[in-house]
Specification:
With 221 residues, this protein is α/β, with parallel strands linked by helices. The protein is built from six helices and four strands; from the N terminus they run βαβαβαααβα.
Length: 221
């Protein structure tokens, strides 16, 4: 398929499976060079992908191909304690590489969905700004699916922030309209990504199975 021409027979589901080497947003500066356990920021997206794959493998009625991709080195961006310049290119390294060197030459898909931090307690998934820019029709599709299965409160019909994430190179380099399901905490003082983001507290104790279920059932829908 030529670049930019959608292959209507396939869709892309992706997440990053690496963990951040530095808890540089932790409230305690003595933790800034400790690694993040990444129960939410990494593992939760992969967990939902694995469950989707399990359910899809049991079905004989999925009339479309689904490609699951785990991106590496998403979270190796310049740490806050570093003096190095952060132009944004130090993030999403695996997605940048894959988008330039896909596993199949001229790979394309109908659309893509990126799952990032989809298990945190109290998470709400607002419509991410870059997703609205590149793939508004896919945002509409997914948020409508959330409404159908009863999760409108978890997927508010409002815009959140604009995020540099793995979906950016997939949109820009491969031309596959790809959205990001990522939390937005309106009033969290630590970060708009939530209180455990890039801290040593990103652990299983702060994962909510109800959040995982809301995202997983929305994806199945």
């Amino acid at each position: 398929t030529p670049k930019g021409v959608e292959d209507v027979s396939r869709i892309l589901v992706c997440a990053h499976w690496d963990s951040r080497p530095w808890a540089d947003n932790d409230a305690d500066s003595t933790n800034w060079r400790k690694p993040v356990v990444a129960a939410n920021d990494g593992a939760s997206g992969v967990a939902v992908m694995l469950e989707l794959a399990r359910l899809v493998s049991q079905s004989d009625s999925v009339g479309i191909g689904i490609d699951f991709i785990c991106f590496d080195a998403e979270d190796w961006g310049v740490p806050q304690w570093s003096d190095a310049d952060d132009s944004g290119d130090s993030w999403a390294l695996g997605a940048q590489h894959w988008a330039s060197n896909p596993h199949i030459k001229n790979y394309c898909a109908r659309y893509g969905v990126l799952l990032d931090m989809v298990g945190g307690s109290g998470s709400k998934f607002f419509r991410e700004g870059m997703s609205l820019h590149y793939a508004p029709e896919i945002v509409e599709k997914v948020w409508n699916a959330a409404r159908v299965v009863g999760y409108s409160s978890v997927f508010p019909n409002s815009q959140g922030g604009m995020v540099t994430d793995d979906h950016i190179p997939v949109n820009e380099k491969l031309g596959i309209p790809t959205i990001d399901i990522i939390p937005y905490y309106e009033s969290c003082p630590q970060s708009s990504f939530g209180p455990t983001w890039h801290t040593i507290n990103d652990t299983m104790e702060n994962i909510d199975r109800n959040t995982l279920k809301a995202v997983g059932q929305t994806m199945i829908q």
